[in-house]
Amino acid sequence: MSNEALLVLDRVCKSFGPVRVIDEVTVQVHAGKVSVLLGENGAGKSTLIKMIAGVHEPDAGRILLDGAEVRIPDTKASEALGIATIHQELNLVPSMTIAENITLGRVPRRFGIINRRAMRRIARDALDQLGLNLDVDTEVGELGLAQQQLVEIAKALSLDARVLILDEPTAALTTSEIAHLFSVVNRLKAQGVGMVFISHHLDEIAEIGDYVNVLRDGKFIATVPADTDENELVRLMVGRDIEAQFPRVAQQPGEHELLSVQNLSVGMLQDVSLAVRPGEVVALAGLMGAGRTELIRAIAGADKYSSGSVSVAGKKLPSFDVAAATRAGIGHVPEDRKTQGLVLDASVAENIGYATMAATSRGGLVDRKGQRARTQEVAARLRIRMGSIDQPIRSLSGGNQQKAVFGRWFTAGAKVLLLDEPTRGVDVGAKVEIYELINEITAAGGCVLMASSELPEVLGMSDRVLVMSQGRIAGELVTADATQDSIMALAVSNVHREEEMGTK
Amino acid sequence: MSSTTTAPKKGFDFKAFLANNGALVGLVILCLALFIATPRFLTGPNLLNIGIQVSTIAVMAFGMTFVIVAAGIDLSVGSVAALSAMGSSYAVTTAGLPDGLSIPIGLAVGALCGWVTGAMSAYGKLPTFIASLAMLTVVRGLTLVISDGRPISTSASVSWLGDDLGPIPMPIIILVLSGLVAAFVLNRTVTGKNAFAVGGNTEAARLSGIPVKRVLVTVFVISGVFAALSGMILAGRLDSAQPTLASGYELDAIAAVVIGGASLSGGVGRISGTLIGALVLAVIRNGLNLLSVSAFWQQVVIGAVIAIAVGFDVLRRKNVKH
């Protein structure tokens, strides 16, 4: 197997300061095969990819291309060796056409003037290779994300890429778009391109992969065939058995409503009322744009509402006042941790401590010792994996960053957790840990209101489901009796009704 | 192999130190170069001279650090320094108030100006650049109105700020004290820490319950107070409050903060860095004077230094983040 490998990372190591993030990892990429890189966030996948892409050089170990040792000191070198990386954030210029993007930086010229015909031909050839029927004069900004991604792959191929690295290419795609992407991947396989594929969706692995390299904590664990059982993959990835993907421990709900929302209206939200009792997890399901995030934010005090009220334990909260909501025991884990949840330049300790910093201060001075003790205790309890509590939170993996946002509200002793897509971009192991935190809150007599687009999560972790549709609560289901179909039926109910009314 | 995971290579720490303290290293190199180039650099009188030179810019820049850490900018500090100096002296020498009130009035004028700028941007939603640009003109205008365009003589206590205390000039003493206070407030108080959070990510700070608007107003008030102090030192040294005092100083103050490693996009900054930044500017000016370089060329050199210093910092950040 090893003598025919296209690209081999041979016992590579990489440390950042004292932290060894990659420890003697060996990975092979074969022509015409898809090698899946599997591991939790923080297992070292990104660092490994960056070694191939020329962003980081390994401290030790060798990189072999066609059996010959190569050095990849920068991204230019990587490109010259025929290696292309498709990142989640695409490197395209939206205001330029497909043809201009594909030939960016190597525009064909005649007498110093751009040769548009040659440019279109190069682009056309690249798209043909992928079987794409797009007009090369279309501006890239007009394309959907999935098509932009394919354009980027076409660009890589027109640079004669033989090794293609796909970093979570399916994360933002719909089911049909994923199917299209996979057909393109299969086409490339037939053309002998070697691919590295990263995904958090285990079900995609068997479909598209040939073999799986599992990493854990920067170490190489195993290479297994792609049709390996999902539970076995999870076990290899997290290093222990995960008994249940959704470990919900239901509680007997308390008598009195802990969170109560009465006739809330603002923007698209119309007359929303709901109540959550101690010990309960209530899920907010619905289509994109149904108003889940708007509702969560209004309750949290992040946005103004025009009418209605929000009460915690019977006490009415002022509108648009996060500090008051926080004092009343509300904790808000927003939709996007990077832009709304975290101060990325600040340390783990500071990020966990923001909600308690003012309340524990004396005479305006930060209680440094106390804050440190509290944040350290919570970080340990939530098993946030980090080198030190003083390291910038930017350097943690997504799952650990998300746990830190939870940690902020654990530190503050929040009783009402408002979660907005709590496990987005979080890997399996950390997901389960976050679910355990939800259990912990409800076991302690708190309650959780969780907006989620992932129906398995809604069905697996909630006690009741409120289904939203066009700013209203379209219906309520007891989770035990709910199915994906019954939730979806409610989620589209208003949509249908209005469509019918429109046609009449 | 495991030994390599725990023990970083020797010299690594030194490299990290250099990378994290680029401005300090630059300052040391600069001083060494001047020491070699001219015997007049490392003399007591010259060093005291640098200390006095640096004090006005540094004190102003300490306040500016708060605003920049909170992702704002304060262009009004030069004008605020002038109005405060003018107000503190006017109250005593023209309006006849007791001399003891002179400095408090100056500081209050600075705080009030800062409050107006902060309120305009926090509650009026003006970008800090615009709000403080408006104040730069308004406040300078008020200074000219009060003084009728003429210098007025300073009050006794403002003059005292420019005198010597024993062998040490007062400006240097104020520089040290205000630096300590600024560092303490920035790093130990809730206000200071909130400024970092607001500058680092305003939305995350707001959703954590941090009163973002109040923080914004507070950092401008702090900036105004430090600008006032700086203005009174300057007037004290000249023994007169001039209507054009400290004109253009806001740019030096911003340069000092940025050379000191703060990020104009907010969330990053140190008082010690700002002091070093101010020292770099002062030492270069002093050195060029000692070497009899024309004042015109000095401007060229200073501009280049700002570009180089910040350029290095950008490179450093790029290498640190992965």
Automatic annotation (TrEMBL), chain A:
It comes from the Bacteria. GO terms for molecular function: ATP binding. InterPro entries: AAA+_ATPase, ABC_carbohydrate_import_ATPase, ABC_transporter-like_ATP-bd, ABC_transporter-like_CS, P-loop_NTPase. Keywords: ATP-binding, Nucleotide-binding, Repeat, Transport. SUPFAM superfamilies: P-loop containing nucleoside triphosphate hydrolases. Residues 7-242, 244-495 form the ABC transporter domain. Pfam families: ABC_tran. Transmembrane segments: none annotated. This is Ribose transport system ATP-binding protein. It comes from Glutamicibacter protophormiae (Brevibacterium protophormiae).
TrEMBL record, chain B:
The chain crosses the membrane at residues 17-38, 50-73, 80-97, 103-122, 129-147, 167-186, 215-235, 296-315. InterPro entries: ABC_transp_permease (IPR001851). It is a multi-pass membrane protein. Keywords: Cell inner membrane, Cell membrane, Membrane, Transmembrane, Transmembrane helix, Transport. It holds the Pfam family BPD_transp_2. The keyword Metal-binding does not apply. It comes from the Bacteria. The keyword Metal-binding does not apply. It is found in: Cell membrane. This is Ribose transport system permease protein. The lineage of its organism: Bacteria, Bacillati, Actinomycetota, Actinomycetes, Micrococcales.
